Amino acid sequence: MTDLSIVITPADDLIDVPRRIVISGAAAGQALRVDSSTLRRGAEWRSSAIFVADAQGRIDLSRDAPSEGDYQGVDAMGLLWSQVPLQPGQRDNFHADVATPLVTRISAGDASAELVQRLAGPGVVRREVRHDGLVGTLFLPATPGPHPAVMILNGSGGGINEPRAALYASRGYAAFALAYFKAPGLSDYISNTPLEYVERGLDWLRAEVQPRDDFVAISGQSRGGELVLLLAATFPAKVSAVLAYVPSALVHSGQNAADPAVGREGPTWLLRGKPLPHQWTDNRSASWKPFDDGPAPHRHELAMLTALDDPEAVARARIPVENIQAPVLLLSATDDGSWPSARYCAMVRDKLAEAGHRWPVLWRNYQDAGHSILFPFVPTTQTTYAHPVSGRISTGGGEPSANARADLDSWQQAQQFLRDAVATHSLRKDHP
Q1: How far, in Å, are 14, 124, 145, 214 from residue 121 at the CA level?
Q2: What is the pLDDT of residues 367-379, one digit of tens each?
Q3: Are 314 and 426 contained in the same domain?
Q4: pTM for the whole structure
């Protein structure tokens, strides 16, 4: 009779902290099933894998690969990213209240232990912002300021990206998650969004928190990635660093987040009241047919590729990234099902190089990963889903294991990129 025990180190920490999971008390060579279960916004997610104990009756997930199960290879956090929801269609990784931790039960035989992941560290302050038409949430670190600041913008799902902002605040940044549609008091759609609204968010953040050395970075994913490049090119003096997750090099139409009354080929962004030319504007090659009529799961990327075959339309829609006066981090994926982010990032990098960009440009392109690059140690299995605005079923692409690697590396790269950008910015302030 064995006496199993499970030790998780650390048992309770921020979500981006890797854990060591060690099971002791098994018989030498015993095959043991290890299960994980997490309640995520009311829905249960599970994973399992079978491991073989060593001569001392131990299993160490940071050392041992499963013999079979929901993931392959040595991965200390494989049981978390390989989880799937018991109820199909669930995609929410986090609770509505970001202060509520995720609690994962790891079990083997009669033994179990809890692994606790937090988005907000002790003392992080959350404050809703409803000011001058702005809708968002400000998170402040527990430590005294001033702190460098980051504004976080969501993609085509809209809303307020509180999880990322809470984690940034836990890592020492004044983090402002700003909604620009699909939030209380705002339009339900991305169509006809004024860039001046987001500029107002930058100005408010700077005035409200008075960031360290006036450092304000902007981070956005997907349509938010397009938006941060566009903002930095349009208001270069107001942006200290750019983090563009799976972005576009071009201005796009409303697409899946469009107001039905405007249409998916209608404008997304307004500047001084006028719509910006976008990829579909007078495009001679653009066609929705490969997306609409293509095989399931539908890939939005296939339609976007048709639009790239008209060089004149591409030139009209290109974001003038050469105007950016800040370091740029580009994150893309080779199997992006939503749009060709790798090709877009190459266009941005090449244009910045051609323009003699004086600030660092870092591009990470993740092999076999898809559109949904988040941060580490969350499930990466739900790649096909109904778009939260249009309801269209499509795939973001990527293999779960590759998505998990992209989640981890991208967050590590983002943290180092920001540390370097803050340090360089401070030196310029001290020695203009």
Answers
A1: 7, 6, 16, 24
A2: 999 999 999 999 9
A3: yes
A4: 0.96
